Amino acid sequence: MNATSRRQGARHGFSAQRWWSIVLKEFLQLRRDRITFGMIVGLPIVQLLLFGFAINSDPRHMPTAVIVAEHSDFSRTFIAALENTTYFKVVRTMPDEAAGREALERGDVQFVVSIPADFSRRLLHGDRPSILVEADATDPSATGPAIGALAQLPASVARIDLKGALAPLAGGKPAFDVNVHRLYNPEGITQYNIVPGLMGVILTMTMVMMTGLAMTRERERGTMENLLATPVQPIEVISGKIVPYIFIGLIQATIIVLAAHFVFAVPFLGSVVAVYMAALLFIAANLTVGITLSSLASNQLQAVQLTFFYFLPNILLSGFMFPFAGMPAWAQWIGNVLPMTYFNRMIRSIMLKGSGWVELWPNVWPVLLFTAIVMTIAVRFYKRTLD
């Protein structure tokens, strides 16, 4: 009786040896589950790098075009002072305002600076001439600091060029004005930028996750063997699984556009057809990503983990939350690989600028190329999964 009690006490009491065995077992399971282990180790590193180095809410050296109707010392000094603020980088010279407006609409430049033909003459006569600066204000957080820096330019130019007999022109009021026209979002309303971008966020999360879960669910339930018994080709299986989610994605896009316009009062200046075509391209790109990730995952939990790992850089590096122009070159390179970067530009251009396919094409072909490449990878991975 005493021996039995001692055995029961040993079984019910705390045992360091049993505890250590369980600890070792958990470490072994983590080592075998490479995706989970990679998430535990890799995700904090990725977050640290992105938030520490890639995120910048005060973008500098934004692409700027100039229209110089007169070439004088004053105009050259103004352009030099403009670049010395570090907010502007002159990347091209435009022949007229129409060309500058087209560059703004395409998204080639963030600002267009127009110096009039009679600038020097009016300045020397004390008439306070004006320099026009047109800004693409679709993202207020990107253009706000730069616009604020423009207020200091008249004083900077006056200190350099208005000396000697011209010194009285530099005293008192500014010798010239800088008039800023905020285009596409003149009031700087944040919702105009955020709400259209939410379409890309929602479609990325739902399309990638739903497709990944659908494929891994079949393997977990054993229904993949039924597909193996049929003469279907991998491309047929993949495209057949994609189609239902395309319709779901288009329904989501419709709801978001209606809410953006009627609930948040976001302007809708473009074509409904353009919105649906852009959404269709983006949905197809994300569905191919979901198929590819499902081929790497062995269960639904891993599919969700891989989806989150793909989702994080899309949120941070696509220009949705933080200005794309403020990121370092390596972060912009990664962002230019992601389809959400181009979709955000397309949907904002359609809704706020009324852009057509000519203006959208520079953002369309990268999404098409991404979809074709990832679809090829998905088919090969799926063949390997079947084998």
Could you please describe the fold and organization of this structure?
By secondary structure, this protein is α/β, with parallel strands linked by helices. The protein folds into 2 domains: 62-183, abc type-2 transporter like domain (abc type-2 transporter like fold, 3-Layer(aba) Sandwich); 190-386, no CATH class. It is 67% helix and 8% strand. It has 17 helices and 5 strands. The protein has helices spanning 2-12, 16-32, 34-54, 73-84, 97-106, 119-124, 140-149, 153-161, 167-170, 190-221, 224-228, 234-262, 272-296, 300-317, 329-335, 339-353, 357-386; strands spanning 62-68, 88-93, 111-115, 130-136, 177-183. Strands 2-1-3-4-5 form a 5-stranded mixed sheet, sandwiched between helices. The radius of gyration is 29 Å and the shape is elongated. The N and C termini lie far apart (60 Å).
Quick gist of this model?
This protein is α/β, with parallel strands linked by helices. It has 17 helices and five strands.
Topology readout:
Blueprint: H1 2-12, H2 16-32, H3 34-54, E1 62-68, H4 73-84, E2 88-93, H5 97-106, E3 111-115, H6 119-124, E4 130-136, H7 140-149, H8 153-161, H9 167-170, E5 177-183, H10 190-221, H11 224-228, H12 234-262, H13 272-296, H14 300-317, H15 329-335, H16 339-353, H17 357-386
Parallel strand pairs: 1-2, 1-3, 4-5
Antiparallel strand pairs: 3-4
Helix pairs in contact: 3-14, 4-8, 10-12, 10-13, 10-14, 10-16, 12-13, 13-14, 13-16, 13-17, 16-17
